[in-house]
Write a structure and sequence with these properties.
264 residues, 9 strands, 9 helices, four-stranded mixed sheet, five-stranded antiparallel sheet, Arc Repressor Mutant, subunit A, 34% helix
């Protein structure tokens, strides 16, 4: 795997002498590298980097829904600053910032992946991340707690859990009713054929959200719904159809759903 982004983030953390920057504002962090940071209204863009002759300007859309999202966007742009010297003017939006939109990333080369990888390591350093979640059971609340603790977006937390292979989970990204991306952790012992470009299973929680037009239909503890293993996975003739959980995060604005499935 390409670890250029995470390796650069580790260099930056070593340089500033921090194991965790959750208590440092992005403005203060960037000023230490003589980078100008601004939050302002950006049309059709979540973040922007402008590399001048003497200083770099990084902008983040102040209308973003959460401070965690703003922080991740800022860290993503900072990744471009350190990794992609030839990038003089660049806009990022929900598509280029999306971990799961691999088709868009492929069109743009590896730059967006590297910037996301940089942001994840910078905001959620592996050692601190592992220490925080050790012995904690996996649940929707854990994802929210990690997001709050490290001040980063829910989506980045999910991908961090997956790429570090910390919990046995299956992740599916659905866009406009079709599966665009799926991946499972190594410890999740299930078998699944390629489901890319297919709709989610009829009896899945993801399909419930599609039929509800991406509206939130479960709250609190009900966010993790019991399903059968056979809902998403193929069973061999010796297997029992045991219980799994499915937790979905719909985004009505972009018509996307992130679905997480794990053993009960």
């Amino acid at each position: 795997m390409n670890q250029k982004g995470s390796n650069k983030a580790k260099e930056i953390l070593d340089l500033i002498g921090c194991e965790d920057i959750s208590d440092i504002s992005m403005e203060d962090l960037m000023s230490g590298f003589d980078i100008i940071y601004k939050e302002e209204d950006l049309h059709n863009s979540d973040g922007k980097i402008v590399r001048g002759n003497f200083r770099t300007l990084i902008k983040v859309n102040k209308s973003l829904i959460s401070e965690q999202r703003k922080r991740f966007v800022a860290a993503h742009e900072l990744g471009h600053h350190f990794l992609h010297k030839k990038l003089e003017l660049h806009n990022d939006n929900a598509k280029t910032l999306n971990w799961f939109n691999i088709e868009k990333q492929a069109q743009k080369g590896v730059q967006e992946y590297e910037a996301n990888d940089f942001a994840s390591e910078l905001l959620m350093p592996e050692n601190a991340f592992r220490k925080y979640i050790i012995n904690k059971p996996f649940s929707p609340q854990l994802i929210k707690d990690i997001s709050t603790r490290f001040k980063t977006s829910i989506t980045s937390v999910i991908f961090r859990l997956l790429t570090l292979d910390i919990v046995p989970v299956f992740v599916v990204f659905i866009s406009n009713g079709k599966i665009h991306y799926w991946r499972k952790s190594n410890d999740l012992k299930v078998w699944i054929p390629d489901i890319t470009k297919l709709p989610p299973p009829e009896n899945s929680v993801a399909m419930e959200y599609l039929e509800a037009d991406y509206d939130f239909i479960y709250k609190g503890a009900e966010k993790a719904q019991l399903i059968s293993k056979s809902t998403w996975f193929k069973l061999n003739y010796q297997e029992d159809d045991i219980d799994f959980y499915e937790y979905c995060i719909p985004t009505k604005q972009y018509k996307t759903i992130i679905s997480l499935i794990w053993e009960a």
